[in-house]
Structures are given as structure tokens and as C-alpha cells.
Amino acid sequence: MNDVRVGIIGVGSMGTQHAKYLSTKEITGAKLTAVFDQSEDHANWIKENICHEVAVFYDCEAFFQSGLIDAVIIATPHYDHSKYAIQAFNHGLHVLSEKPAGVYTKQVREMNEAASNSGKVYSMMYNQRTNPLYVKLRDLIHSGELGEIRRMNWLITNWYRSQSYYDSGGWRATWAGEGGGVLINQCPHQLDLWQWITGMMPTRMRAFCYFGKHRNIEVEDDVTAFAEYENGATGVFITSTGEAPGTNRLEIAGDQGKVVIEDGKLSFWRLRVPESQFNEEYKGGFGSPECWKCDIPVLGEETGHQGITQNFVDAIQSKTSLIAPGEEGIKGLMLSNAMQLSTWLDNWVDLPIDEDLYFQQLQAKIKSSTVEKKNKITRLDVKETH
Amino acid sequence: MNDVRVGIIGVGSMGTQHAKYLSTKEITGAKLTAVFDQSEDHANWIKENICHEVAVFYDCEAFFQSGLIDAVIIATPHYDHSKYAIQAFNHGLHVLSEKPAGVYTKQVREMNEAASNSGKVYSMMYNQRTNPLYVKLRDLIHSGELGEIRRMNWLITNWYRSQSYYDSGGWRATWAGEGGGVLINQCPHQLDLWQWITGMMPTRMRAFCYFGKHRNIEVEDDVTAFAEYENGATGVFITSTGEAPGTNRLEIAGDQGKVVIEDGKLSFWRLRVPESQFNEEYKGGFGSPECWKCDIPVLGEETGHQGITQNFVDAIQSKTSLIAPGEEGIKGLMLSNAMQLSTWLDNWVDLPIDEDLYFQQLQAKIKSSTVEKKNKITRLDVKETH
């Protein structure tokens, strides 16, 4: 079988990473054949430093019509994910997009439709779905071990970013450039995992985003969000880029106990009988269900970006099912959009959100933006992020 | 010096506890001389089973005018705390009241005024203030080790209560009997500690209480509350009586690191330089402040109810300063009232709250209550609670 010929769209910080592992043949059945970047410097840097054989394009149309590629990885600023994905599908190419799927759900819905019409393989770079801890937690929930979910609490405040980080890219942390802050740049993984692990999306949310609270930026850098679910469960999601050392602790409580992921460990407190059954049968005063703390084996390795790219290539070559199907990208983005919209309206928002209203509000933010950034773009080493 | 002669008002579950340790002379400088309970059975049970020498009263006025007591411990249902406290102060008696201070702040404000006018010793049974973990955390914060507080997150869901618990007392979990659920009965300690440890009260709150969500009761048994503070800090407080095994985890993040209390341990992650200073000086990409995990010694023992009662007696005899001055009781209650009020209004509430509005809303709940409980009152063994 021929290698899948992969082109990368956007070779800034993250696109460079993808170019590196593709050019060192870490992905079986794939080769890097072309890169496209509007910045000639960026594109040429890849050819000079990473992969001498790669074809370099500064023109998008020439890239798509080159005949050199079967599939693309999109690693541009977020606003352009859907634009390039739609073009790629229209050119009969398979698409793996960086997260988030886009900036607003209206745009991502169009991207999903283009994918569906094309019949091509469509995946999202949700590399945290390869983390064995989350895979195992999802397994416990979907197999019924935890019982019906009642509460989720994710404290994910370890996305520390300094002012100098924000100052390093002209498009960073602006309404026009990114369309958001910690929710759109740092948290898409957790927002995806939140719904993927549980299989549940809220029916409504009430969120409290703070814009430029810790840093001199116009977008949100601190968020507390409250979610209600159809079955009566509730959830809280808290994130910030302004705290050190920060915390990453996910707790999910169900009818049969609770699970906590923290410090790279999964702990399961299992009730001997479900809480609902205990409550029905118990006739005493202060008693509670017998509880066993269980050591749950968590096997396997996090395969990260390479894992998702390998899975994407395998799906193209042998119809392997996708770890992160592209059309699921809209879910995490819906949570992110809902949190911002709830804050702007200072009220509850029902899900699915009013996509037109969100789009209007976002446009208003872009219009009233007073940020004038120098167009300094630095290629950051991303090995310390996801 | 003569022993302080203590009378107990209300000898249900909790009052019985106080009678027990007083009659076994666990409190230096105090003796149990009288009990008053509207239930003759309850009052006589103490004389027959706990303390043969105690004088028993079923009539409140006779109790106050007996000349047998210098101080009272009030352990009635919550609504009556302020009523009896005011009467006691008017009779020139010292007062130690069970938590909560009362059901609504308007009532507690009157209680505080009566205390102030009397000049007598006035304390609140906040026995968790003797827990060395919280004492130490307060020390770290008040001495500036944590820096300015930015976020608090208290997940206190280990207040499991079965339906049979709620069915065991006629006044339990009703608007007329208790004036609330988990906030007014189980959580007063944490609500007090929250403000006592930090020395901070929110400027506004947005809360989500659920009434009778897990149990057949009319009051709240599940709460998520969001708080904003004057310095920009935020906080989340989550509680429930319907989850097992539940969690008790308090995290406080500041400019110089974070502290977590969980599983009876205090952990302090200390930044080498404050986050704000790091942010100002750092010029790189993904860096964050150097952080040291510190083992903090937590010494001493939790002296509990006896510790507070001993401190109360010591304050009467030798002007020792109080661990839990009575007039501070209104603060935790203000948080509780604010959470209910925010839910009822489905909106933000500013603090201090509109006390008249809260009172009106509470009266409306009492009026529209459809609960008709059997007047079955069981004396529960409280050794498993606080």
C-alpha cells in the first residue's frame, strides 16, 4: 500500500511539531510531502531545518492543486480551521484538524457538512483521548461501574501562561485572532474529554468568565462554569492561566461511588450497593453505604499527537475507526461558546446554544477590540504543552 | 473560684451530648445544674440516665428564674437559638449557642445586639475551629505565606444523609422546622470556616440550590455556589447530602502558591517567588514559577465540642479570649442565606444581603409548605457527626 502523502497547513509552533515527527518517519504509512504557510519564512524554515524534500507553498490554491497530497493536517490559527478543512474536502482530501474545531459552532457545522458530503476521513487532534487515565475512566462510566452520573467537578487551573507568552504571537489572545482565551486555546482538550468521558452534554449552563483578569489581554483567562444535565446531574468546570502551580483534578460522582483523576492517578471508591438502593433499605440514623477503595490498573501509554496522526493514517488506509472523529469537535466548542455567551448575557444559556446570537456577540467583541498588537510571531517550543 | 453553673436549653440529640461531657466533669470549672426542654420525656431522660443531680424544667421562665445557672448552652432547633439567647442575656446569663447562629440574619442581628448590651460572654459552637488543620491553614494565610488569595474551592459532599435520617425528627428538613437543609444543618461549620480561615466575605454570590433533589424533603440537599470577592478572588462551594462516599477537599490558591486540605492532611505548594513577580520578570514562552512542595507540621488535637465549651467557661472565669465569638455567627449564616436567596431569585445577590427580602421569601416558603410530618422525634446518636 502506498504511503499517505500528508501536507501541513500552517507551520507555526504546532505545525512544526507535526512536521518533525512525520519527517522522522514516526508515523507508519505516511510521509510529509508539502507544507503551506502564508509566511514564507515559516514555510521555508521547515524545508531548511526539518525536511529537505518537502514542497513548500505560500499560496493555498497551488498547495491544494499540487497533486502532491492525499491528506492535510491543519495547524493554523483557530479561525481558519474550518475554512481550510472545507477547501480540503472539496479537493477530495482527508482532514486532520488541530483543536479547537473552530471558533464558533456555526462555522464548525459547515465544516462537518463538508466532511460528510466528501466521504473523506475527518479527524480532530484530540490527543488527550489517548491518555490511558481518561480511556479507563470512560470505560468505567460506559460499562456502568460508576452508575448514573450525579456530579462532575473539574479543576483544571494548571494552564499557567505568563504575559510574555501572550506577547509572543500577534494573533494570540485577541477576539480577532483567536476568538477567546483559555477556553479556546488551552482547554479544548478538557472540554472534549468532559463530554467524551461521560457521553453527556449539559442542557444549560451558567458561567463566569473574566477577561484579562490576570494578564493584559482582552479575552478570558479565568473561568468558572456550572452545568446542568438532563438526568439531574450537575457539573463545575474551573480553569485559569494565571495560577501557579495550578491543579488538574477531575472528580466524577455516580450512584455507585466516585472516581478521581489527579496527579496522574485514577482512584475509584466503589459502593458495595448503589447509593439509591442503600437509601431505600436503610432504616438507621447517620449510616452510609459501605465503600471500597479500589486500585484500578491503568495500562498503556499516551500516544499523543503521533497516536492521533497514526490513527488518522490507519483510518485512511484500512478503515480503522477513529479515536477522535472530526464531527465530534463541535461538542467541546459548544461548551466553550456557551460559557462565553452565558457570561456576556450574564444569564443561563440553553444548549445547543443560539449559534447566531453567539456569532453576533463575537463579531461585536471583534469590532470593539482596542488591541493593536505588533505582528511579531515567534515559533514557541511546544513540548511543554499539549 | 466557683464552678460556672451551666444549664442546657434543649436536650435532644446534641443537647444530650453536652449533658454527657458536662456531667462526667470533662470541663474544668463547670458543672451541669439544670436542663430545660419542652418535652418532659427528653428532660427527664437526662436526669434518669445522665445526671441525677440536675434540676429539670419544662417551663422556660422557671428555668431562667431558678437562680441555678450562670450560663446556658442552647441546643434547640435552629429557629429558637436567638429567642433563648436574647432571654438568657436579659436574665444576665452567659450564652454558648449551637450552630447555626439562627435561621435568618435579621434574627441573629437582634441576638448580637442583646449580647452586646448584656456584656456577657457569648460564644458559638464552632467546634471545627479547634481542628488543627484549619487553625494551621488560617495561620498560613493570615501570616501572608500564601500571598493574596485568588481562588477557593471547597468540595464538601461528605454529608451523606439517608431518607431514614430525615424521617427521624419532626422538625428536620422543613422550612418551618429548620429553615433549610444541608446549608443550615450540616454545613454551618464549613461556611464559618470558609470566612474564618480567609478573613474574607464575598461581595456577591450566584448559587444553585436544589430542593429535595436526592431525598423526599422540601429544603435544599444539593448546592453549588459561586462567590466573588472585593480583591477579585473567586470561590466555589459545593455540598450535598445525597452522595457517597463524598469528598471533603478545600483548595485555596494565592499569589505565593496553593494549599490543599484533604484526607486529614494539609499540603502547601510554595512558589519561590510570588506569581505576580515571576510574571513581571519572565521573558520566555511556556515557563512558570519554581514551586516547592512543603511538608507543613500540623500539631495539636481537635478538642471539638468540649474544647469550645471549655473555652467558653474559661472566658467566663478568666476573660480568656474566645475561639468562636458569638457575634461572628452571623457571617456563616449570611453565606447560607445568600445561597438560598440567589437560587430563589435565580440571580446574583450582593452581600450583605437584603435581610428583609430574605425573611419575606423564607416566610413564603413556610406558608406554601405542604409537609405534614408525624411529630416523631428520635434522639439520634450524634457521635458520627459534628
UniProtKB/TrEMBL annotation, chains A, B:
Q: Where is the Gfo/Idh/MocA-like oxidoreductase N-terminal domain?
A: 4-125
Citing just one GO molecular function, the answer is: nucleotide binding
Pfam families found in the cross-reference section: GFO_IDH_MocA, GFO_IDH_MocA_C3
Concerning SUPFAM superfamilies, the annotation shows: Glyceraldehyde-3-phosphate dehydrogenase-like, C-terminal domain, NAD(P)-binding Rossmann-fold domains
Residue ranges of every copy of the GFO/IDH/MocA-like oxidoreductase domain listed in the record: 134-259
- Could you tell me which InterPro entries the record lists for this protein? Gfo/Idh/MocA-like_OxRdtase_N, Gfo/Idh/MocA_Oxidoreductase, GFO_IDH_MocA-like_dom, NAD(P)-bd_dom_sf
Instruction: Tell me which Gene3D superfamilies the record gives.
Output: Dihydrodipicolinate Reductase, domain 2 (3.30.360.10), NAD(P)-binding Rossmann-like Domain (3.40.50.720)
The protein in question is named Oxidoreductase
